[in-house]
Amino acid sequence: MKIPAWRPLVALVIAVLAGRATTLSAQGITTGAIAGTVTNDQGAPLEGIQIQVTQTNTGYKTSGVTRANGSYRIQGLEIGGPYSVTARRIGLAPQTKNAIVVNLGQTARVDFVLAQQAAQLEAIQVISTTGAVISNTKTGVGKMISDSMISRLPTLTGSFTDFVKLTPQVTTSGGGVSGGGANLR
């Protein structure tokens, strides 16, 4: 009995589709999230608050920023915990909430109410230099190669290009010496 030519093709298509179905069913959510809102004492939402999430056991840290409506969402967190969530911004008292547990496929809600706090800035110390930082006699990049360096450094050809190669801005590829990206001609 002769097998029709289309039967092996049909069997192959069925096998491929059956294999696809099992791999797709194995996909799923393996993480959780932490989300919430940040408001001030009067209940107004705060934008631009830095949110830092730290897994206490491993030290893993991730962060985000609140949106205009005061909400934030940190996704892709390993399930379990415990997590520590901190909200902070200059001019507001920072706040931390500990022992947050993230469940599989769930979003743990952590809200903050931040109060005003005076920010004390440290004094800036100015250090002056005795010489000019910019010299009007030097107009480009340079490297000083002393005569003792010339006598100590190895050279294959005895040419000055062996020493010019010490400067990062100089290249000798292409048959000549080119400095600072200029054409070697």
Structure overview:
The chain has 185 residues and is of the alpha+beta class. Among the domains are: 31-113, Immunoglobulins (Immunoglobulin-like); 147-175, no CATH class. Helix content is 16%, strand content 31%. The chain has three helices and ten strands, in the order αββββββββααββ. Strands 1, 4, 7 and 8 form a four-stranded mixed β-sheet that branches. Strands 3-2-5-6 form a four-stranded antiparallel β-sheet, with no helix packed on it. The longest helix has 20 residues, at 6-25. The radius of gyration is 33 Å and the shape is flat. The model has no long low-confidence stretch (mean pLDDT 79).
Task: Provide a concise account of the structure shown.
With 185 residues, the protein is an alpha+beta fold. Helices cover 16% and strands 31% of the residues.
Give the SSE string.
HEEEEEEEEHHEE
Oligomer: single chain
Task: Please bin the fraction of helical residues.
Answer: 10-25%
CATH superfamily of the domain at 31-113: Immunoglobulins
- Major sheet, described briefly? 4 strands, mixed
CATH architecture designation of the domain at 31-113: Sandwich
> Given the C-alpha coordinates, what overall shape results?
flat
CATH class of the domain at 31-113: Mainly Beta
In terms of DSSP E residues, the strand content is 25-35%
Number of extended strands = 10
Radius of gyration: 33 Å
CATH topology of the domain at 31-113: Immunoglobulin-like
As residue ranges, the low-confidence spans are none
Instruction: Quickly give the structural class.
Output: alpha+beta
Number of helices: 3
Distance between the termini: 81 Å
- Rounded mean pLDDT is 79
